[in-house]
Amino acid sequence: MAEDPQSQGVPAVVKDPAPEVAVLVEEEEAPKVDAEVGKTLDDNSVVKPCAPKEKRDFPMRETVISLGSGGELRFNWFVSLFGLAFLWGISIYCMVEPDKAKVTLDEWFAETIQYFTWFYIVGNPIMTFFIFWLAYRYGNIKLGHKDAEPEFSDMSYFAMLFSAGVGVGLFFYGVSEPLWHQNSNYFSEAGYRSQDEIDQWALEITLYHWGFAGWSPYIMIAICCGLASYAFDLPLTVRSCFYPIFGEYIWGWIGDAIDGWSVVMTVAGVCTSLGLGVIQITTGLQRLEWVDPTKTELTGVYVAIIWIVTAFATISVVTGLKMGIKFLSVLGFSLGCLILFLCFVMEKSYYLMNLLVQTTGFYMQWSIFQVPFWTDSFGSLNPGEGRSVDGNSSETWWIGAWTVFYMAWWVAWACFVGLFIARISKNRTIRSVVFGVFLAPTAYAIIWFSFMGGIGLRQARQALELEKLGTDFFQDAAHYQSDSSEFCYDVPQEDVYVDGVEDPIFVNTLPGITPVCKFDTTSSPAAWFNVMYSYSYPGTGPDGNFGGFGQFLSGLSIFTLAIYFITSSDSGSLVVDTLASNGAEEHHWLQRVFWAFTEGGVATGLLVAGGSDALGALQAASIVFGLPFNFLIIIMCWCILVMCRTLEEHGQANENMD
Q: For 519, phi and psi rounded to 5 degrees?
């Protein structure tokens, strides 16, 4: 186990006469660190890119446990214990006193929002603009060596980063989030916008949350870690990003604290998402009647699903990145595309294509400058503080509950997803990483939300239309109401005529799509399955009892969602094990199993002890504790710049453009 480098002679990086090689020499005292990568005031040297496959040792704490089978466990005991102690400490607090923990941590979250909304909001476009400039100025620099080839094909690469980064969320929020944004915010409460404008702004707000803003923190850590590890041969850990600032001191307690905190953020994020996602899967199972729809005590179901997901995640992470994780990522992404395609062809397809084009232009117009800087400063004023008296202000809680929450949540997940993307981006150029991690996912998000969100909005509008027809012509708002739910309406499969009116009061141009549902804010996970069950095609089939595509699409959605949860869990386990083992990319499989079971155990304990309140408390905690990372990620801009300049000075920029 290595001691703190500040208490002993440490290796300092110096120039080697041979080109493209950096070597280590022993010095008597820790060198004074200057603001260039590897430069020290006493020897005035700069780290140079390392030769491929060159092995280097770093003075980090490490514990080695030999196993009888001949293998061994290698990990940083301080990082591991720091992460476990902090994680289990806050988790046990949430389990033992979930109500009190929820109140306390919600207060912390509210104060974070109150005082740091400006910081979360402005930090994100800073990252976005820096990434675009970086792709332009240093896009031909590789996260690796000039002649090396990427490890994964473009398809596998995109599927893996997509599955780890946002796959689960697109199912959870794909239909429901645009429906949420039809009210309560500045863009819907102005008092002069039509329903058409409000719905377009609902899509715009959703896409702002899931577009460049979501991927900016991920790509910052991915590029910074990738450069440090694959171009400068530093360990694949978050601490390596800050070598330009701390130099050799990063191998001591400063680096241990950074990596330990990264472990906490990663596991907390995966656990809360695992637990909250299980609730949505259970909603789908109840809709399919695989779980009793009338059952309210669902703890046993939650636990069973968590451990089924954990078991498959464990198998995946044990088989490794190039087998289990890659296969499941491609499978999950392919099934998601299949669901998207089936919904597209069964819906009003040309309406969706029109909406896609319209939303793309709207996103390009508003999501680059105006919306990213919107802090809703007037709308967040409380009564007595100067709140608007015209009644058209947004709700005071909206900016914190949605936009700031998202900005904080992406940062909280950035350690996990960013490091995973760095791992699979080896030997790719910065420009290809920006395209693959920034532009392509944003384009896919525009397609996904334009289609799935557009379907949800159209069906909700049709439900309101049927409600109004019932009121106007039958004096009963519930005339077309479905027996299945008070929020859903059966769509007449033929044109509807009434006495005294020559023209039909309702013309059905989409036969087969029924029922359609308004948004139930008390059960937002049901919105996705309402859409799936709307493709019922009544009266079709050999005997007129086809039953529709609802069960098939819902079952396929649950299966795909489970795969995305598995890929999030196994990717998280891989990243945490990498952090806990000082950046080693090859580990004993028992270490990965340990972290996979830790994630499942924490999620189980939280759900059993406090249900969604306990999970929400841990989620709030991870966002509050992620505040320092937002600052660190912005500092990474400078670290990336220094590393790129160093590579360019030493001729490591790839001569060929992408």
A: -85, 125
Between CA 607 and CA 610 the distance in angstroms is 6
What is the C-alpha to C-alpha distance for residues 161 and 140, in angstroms, rounded to an integer?
Answer: 21
Q: Which contiguous run of DSSP H or E holds residue 579?
A: helix 550-580
* Calpha distance 325→577 (Å, rounded): 15
Two structure tokens written together for 642: 């220094």
Cβ-based neighbour number of residue 73 at 10 Å:
15
Alpha-carbon gap, residue 185 to 189, rounded angstroms: 6
DSSP summary character for residue 497: -
Burial label for 362, CB within 10 Å (0-12, 13-18, 19+), is middle
The amino acid at residue 462 is Q
What's the sign of the alpha-carbon dihedral 399, 403, 407, 412? positive
Dist. CA 430–CA 569, nearest whole Å = 27
Taking phi over 0 as left and psi of -120 to 50 as alpha, with beta for the rest, 38 belongs to left
Question: Whole-angstrom Cα distance, residue 381 to residue 213?
Answer: 25
Name the band, by pLDDT with cuts 50, 70 and 90, for residue 574: confident
Look at residue 657 and give its three-state secondary structure. Answer: coil
Which residue, among 18, 449, 529, has the nearest Cα to 199 in the 3D structure?
A: 449
409 sits in the region (left: phi over 0; alpha: psi -120 to 50; else beta) called: alpha
- Under 8 Å between Cβ of 245 and 639: yes
CA distance 113 to 409: 12
Q: Which distant-in-sequence residues (6+ apart) come within 8 Å of 251 by Cβ?
A: 2, 5, 10, 58, 59, 60, 239
For 381, list phi and psi in degrees, rounded to 5.
Answer: -70, 135
* Number of C-beta neighbours around residue 18 at 10 A: 10
Query: Hey, CA dihedral for 461, 465, 471, 476, is it positive or negative?
Result: negative
Burial label for 538, CB within 10 Å (0-12, 13-18, 19+), is middle
> What is the overall mean pLDDT for the chain?
84
Name residue, tokens 């109140």: 103
The answer on pLDDT for 566 being more than 50 is yes
Q: What residues form DSSP beta bridges with 489?
A: 481, 516
Q: Which residues pair with 75 in a beta bridge?
A: 63
Q: Is 481 helix (H, G, I), strand (E, B) or coil?
A: strand
Report which of 287, 237, 292, 242 is spatially closest to residue 262, judged by C-alpha positions: 237
Task: Report pLDDT digits (tens) over 250-303.
Answer: 999 999 999 998 888 888 777 777 777 787 788 889 888 889 888 878 888 888
